[in-house]
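Now read the record:
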Amino acid sequence: MGLEKDIAKFNELNTQVVGISTDSIYAQQAFAKQILVRSFPLASDFKHQVAEAYGVLHPNGHTERATVIVDKAGKVRWTQQVPLTQQRDLNEMLVELRRIEGQGLSAKHRPE
């Protein structure tokens, strides 16, 4: 999984990665073991409360691969959804995190 492989890049940007799925906790545990997730927590949103709160739950009760960047104040700063058949573009997430950080959080990773 790309996030696991590149977790250091996210940590450098003072980012807490959390994987949330509408699968059951048992499915999450199996998934974590299968792809060796060790660097960030996985959470089950089996009742779809989180997906609904962030506006990524479809009327059919399913979600796609959604990425939501929430700042320390709890404000949603960026969202992206891609089909389950696609992988997330981690570089795009990192660019967006750097852009958000460049808006006053730190000069260390400001885009050029």
In short: The chain is about 35% helix and 15% strand. The first helix runs from residue 2 to 5. The domain at 2-101 is CATH 3.40.30.10 (Glutaredoxin).
